[in-house]
Amino acid sequence: xxxxxxxxxxxxxxxxxxxxxxxxxxxxxxxxxxxxxxxxxxxxxxxxxxxxxxxxxxxxxxxxxxxxxxxxxxxxxxxxxxxxxxxxxxxxxxxxxxxxxxxxxxxxxxxxxxxxxxxxxxxxxxxxxxxxxxxxxxxxxxxxxxxxxxxxxxxxxxxxxxxxxxxxxxxxxxxxxxxxxxxxxxxxxxxxxxxxxxxxxxxxxxxxxxxxxxxxxxxxxxxxxxxxxxxxxxxxxxxxxxxxxxxxxxxxxxxxxxxxxxxxxxxxxxxxxxxxxxxxxxxxxxxxxxxxxxxxxxxxxxxxxxxxxxxxxxxxxxxxxxxxxxxxxxxxxxxxxxxxxxxxxxxxxxxxxxxxxxxxxxxxxxxxxxxxxxxxxxxxxxxxxxxxxxxxxxxxxxxxxxxxxxxxxxxxxxxxxxxxxxxxxxxxxxxxxxxxxxxxxxxxxxxxxxxxxxxxxxxxxxxxxxxxxxxxxxxxxxxxxxxxxxxxxxxxx
Length: 493
Ligand code: SF4
Fold this sequence. Notes:
alpha+beta; Glutamine Phosphoribosylpyrophosphate, subunit 1, domain 1
């Protein structure tokens, strides 16, 4: 077992996760759901490329079995591996990490009591616990031993402790867990009682949706609705903040636990992270992004020859901007789809190199033209600077940058892997737009306003998390940001 001093960062750099989870339950126990789980995970691959795993439960064998490994879904699972995963109930996971400490130990689903071969439950988790340290300390005092550096394992031990206290009464144990866990979490828990529990934290940080296939009747809980679409299912609804949804042979039962008037859905899911074809909170993510572009265009004060998107995440906003401003949309940058997203590249050198490998301008679109360049957000500013330089090297006359997200000034402790405040350009430059514009070498720069962002998301301000924009963290735990950043080890290499 690894030993950690509490003064050290016990997580390495591996705690930051923004994963994809899925839980599938077939009422017909003769159906094998491993292939469906694989298909659902493939559609959630954008949420995590580091590792993938599927565990299934077969009632006939009364056993949880499965497989997980490092890599993309298509690399981890061969046909033979999938055929060897038996069961009509499953949980699956894709994991995201930017760090060198990623390892199979941290891959999910996490199995409790794996070594003995009698797994009690399998857990798939998307989010970040903000009271991870105190819970871990407390559980260690109670005799729990930890073999990984993840908050997933802490959640598993919290559940286990509650199961012990409540005599294996899952609903009561899970209700109590919602009181104990702070932070963002969507959970899919599969046990050996032929049940899945799909749970969303009371503030509802992460998207989580329930859907259904008819004939045979199969329920699917997934991080995004696209996973239900991929299985040609029907979207029932979002799993609600503070909801414990039990999926079992008679169907679904639901209860709402510790619900709060304040919600905190992560605005960044709409702006960047979720797939544009997902539906979240009854809103099309694509439509939200188009509206963000339109809102930016309403503040436009420049003439230009073309609106160009930073592909792919800036595209929908660029279309909205073009429609509203009357400036034509043009494909000025072409993306090589076989290079991973720059956001997941672990070092700055690799990120900068990857921009050139990943994007190529179309000279006839940009040469001797004034361009409005639309991107979803600016994190460090270095990638955007590289793109501006690239377009200018292809003859663009002027580059007016418009950003569909307001300035990101503070870190995220709820599961999106931003750098520390010192690395965030808007944090470092105190949101001085002229300074940032100079840094990225653009001719002008305009950010979205927080009010317009909120309007475009179609929610009230107190239903969204905007903490990385306004430093108002909706969670109980982080008070001392410096200490929190140190403890959570979010500095990158
Ligand atoms: S701090 Fe920002 S990225 Fe993190 S959950 Fe809140 S809105 Fe999302």
